[in-house]
UniProtKB/TrEMBL annotation:
UniProt record, GO biological process: potassium ion transport
All residue ranges annotated as the RCK C-terminal domain in the record: 141-227
PROSITE patterns: RCK_C
Protein keywords: Membrane, Transmembrane, Transmembrane helix
Protein name stated in the entry: Potassium transporter TrkA
Organism: Oxynema aestuarii AP17
Gene3D superfamilies per the UniProt record, alphabetical: Regulator of K+ conductance, C-terminal domain
Length: 257
C-alpha cells in the first residue's frame, strides 16, 4: 500500500506544481489558457509549436519555469509508473488486486474533481499568486488583467502588405483611435522596434503592428485593402465605435444615478 500512496503523492504534487507554473507563466504576460496549456505540455513532455517555443526562449522566467517542469515531469512519470508496478506486483491474490484497483480509481476520481474544481482553482491560484509576489522577485507583467483581455478585446500582431489600407500612411492619417484601435508598437522589417509610436510615425509594407482593440475590428482591419471599399470600411468602423462609446457613456450615467 505504500507504493500506492506514493502514486497519489506524486500525482498531487504534479497537479500543485502545474498550478504554480500556470500562475508564474500568467504573471509573465501569457493568457491563462495559454499558460495552463504550456505548463501541462512541459510537465507531460508533449512539446510546443515553433511560435510557442520562441515565446518561452526569449523570456528568462518562462524559460526557467518550463525547464524545471520538463525535469520534474520526467521524474514524476518514472516514479508513478514504478510505483504502480510495485503496487500490483506485490499483490497476493485477486482480492487484493480488486481492492487496490478500487482505491486507485477512487483516488484518481478525487484528484480529477479537485483539479477541475473552479472554486479550488480560484482560491489556490490567488494564494499562489500572493505568495509569489511576496516571497519572490518575479517580474510581473499581467497584461491579460491590465488590458482587460477578455470577451472581444485582445492584443494581436498584424503584418502590413503592400496592398493594405494601412500601408504608406502615418498614424494621424489612418486615425485608428477613432475605430477603437491602439497601436502599441511596430516591428520594422529591418528588425528595429518602435514602441509607443507617435501620430507622425509612418507605416510601411513589411512592418508588423502590435495592436490592441476588439477582435472583430482587428480582423476586418487585417483584410482591408487600399481602395474605396477600404475607406468605406474605415468610416463604418468609426461610426460603430462612436455608437459603442455613446452606449457606454449612457450605461455609466445610469449606474452613477
Amino acid at each position: 500500500m505504500a507504493a500506492l500512496a506514493s502514486v497519489f503523492v506524486v500525482l498531487t504534487l504534479s497537479l500543485l506544481i502545474n498550478r504554480i507554473a500556470t500562475v508564474v507563466l500568467t504573471l509573465t504576460g501569457l493568457s491563462r489558457e495559454s499558460a495552463r496549456f504550456q505548463a501541462r505540455s512541459a510537465l507531460t513532455g508533449v512539446g510546443f509549436t515553433t511560435r510557442e517555443s520562441e515565446q518561452i526562449v526569449r523570456h528568462r522566467v518562462r524559460r526557467e519555469t518550463i525547464s524545471v517542469l520538463m525535469l520534474l515531469g520526467n521524474v514524476g512519470i518514472v516514479t508513478t509508473i514504478s510505483s504502480l508496478l510495485l503496487t500490483f506486483l506485490n499483490s497476493v491474490g485477486p482480492r487484493q488486486w480488486i481492492v487496490r484497483l478500487l482505491i486507485l480509481g477512487v483516488g484518481l476520481f478525487l484528484l480529477w474533481r479537485g483539479a477541475t474544481s473552479q472554486w479550488i482553482d480560484r482560491h489556490l491560484s490567488r494564494a499562489i499568486e500572493s505568495a509569489l509576489r511576496r516571497w519572490t522577485r518575479l517580474e510581473v507583467r499581467d497584461y491579460v488583467r491590465l488590458l482587460h483581455l477578455s470577451g472581444e478585446y485582445t492584443v494581436t500582431q498584424l503584418r502590413v502588405q503592400p496592398q493594405d489600407w494601412l500601408a504608406n500612411d502615418d498614424l494621424q492619417g489612418l486615425n485608428l483611435t477613432r475605430e477603437g484601435v491602439t497601436v502599441l508598437g511596430i516591428h520594422r522589417s529591418n528588425g528595429r522596434y518602435v514602441g509607443a509610436p507617435q501620430s507622425d510615425t509612418r507605416i510601411y509594407p513589411g512592418d508588423t503592428l502590435v495592436l490592441y482593440g476588439r477582435l472583430p475590428v482587428l480582423a476586418e482591419l487585417d483584410d482591408r485593402c487600399a481602395d474605396l471599399a477600404g475607406e468605406a470600411s474605415h468610416h463604418r468602423a468609426i461610426a460603430e465605435q462612436e455608437r459603442r462609446v455613446k452606449q457606454q457613456d449612457c450605461q455609466e450615467k445610469q449606474e452613477n444615478f
